[in-house]
Amino acid sequence: MKVIVKKDFDAMSEAAKEILLGIMSQDKRVNVSITAGKTPVKVYEKMIPVVKDSPDFSNVHYYNFDEIPVDGQEEGITISEIRQLYLTPANVSEDNIHKLTVENYATQDERIALDGGLDAMLIGLGGDGHFCGNMPTTTQFENETYKIKVSGEEPWFDSAMMEKGLEFVTMGAKSVFKVKHLILIVNGKNKAEMVKKVLQGPVDLAYPASILQLHPNFTVILDEEAAHYLD
């Protein structure tokens, strides 16, 4: 595990951008899985002017690692947000977008393997220690891509985002460990205690991201606030 601490959110985002573009610049097909949410916003803002309409990045294919479907909408929350933040403004070809859905999740790992595997995955850290859609109380570390049915009793249940009985899908720890380069970005003092737990505490299902300590090629990029409690 390599931990990089940068002064602030902008510098953290710049470091993540440089690592991703380095991987994406390889002279071969490159497969990357990227995250939605607030944390990667500046990473994408910095990448878009470089990637947009550039033939140098036509070799890059994109995958979402989790998905929450929405009734009445053709696409789920994750891929919709990734499109808004990055794929659409970067003018990524639809041929280079490979969607994980509730319907095709069972073949996700096989499809990625046939495509040559994921060269990189960019993820964030949940305030409760989750990664991707691997949540406390519903995660088992031996899972590949799997489906979760929400009972409404989970401690992370959010009635504003989901309904009881909702099914969503995520790549599990076993799938994530197949990624050639795993990149975690975290900013802000509100996640500093959890950063300490998942990076320097024991591997614990109560904080699913703690398993990532064991990934063979794991880069963590933090701002100073998120790194506050690290030894």
Q: Could you please describe the fold and organization of this structure?
A:
The strands form 2 sheets. A 7-stranded parallel sheet has the order 1-10-9-6-2-3-5, with helices on one face. α1 packs across α2. It is 25% helix and 17% strand. With 231 residues, it is of the alpha/beta class. α6 (192-200) links the parallel β9 and β10 (218-223). The chain contains 6 helices and 10 strands. It has one domain (2-223): Rossmann fold (3-Layer(aba) Sandwich). It starts with a strand and ends in an 8-residue tail after the last strand.
List keywords for this structure.
17% strand; alpha/beta; Rossmann fold; three-stranded antiparallel β-sheet; single chain; 25% helix; 231 residues
CATH C-level: Alpha Beta
Write the H/E string, N to C: EHEHEEHEHEEEHEHE
Characterize the largest beta sheet: strand count, sense, and whether it forms a barrel.
Answer: 7 strands, parallel
The structural domain count equals 1
Q: Which oligomeric state applies? A: single chain
- Measured between the Cα atoms of the first and last residue, the distance is 14 Å
Poorly predicted runs of 5 or more residues: none
Mean pLDDT equals 94
In angstroms, what is the radius of gyration? 17 Å
If you consult CATH, what is the topology?
Rossmann fold
The share of residues in extended strands comes to: 15-25%
Strand element count: 10
Structural class: alpha/beta
Architecture in CATH?
3-Layer(aba) Sandwich
As a percent range, the share of helical residues equals 25-40%
SS summary, helix count: 6
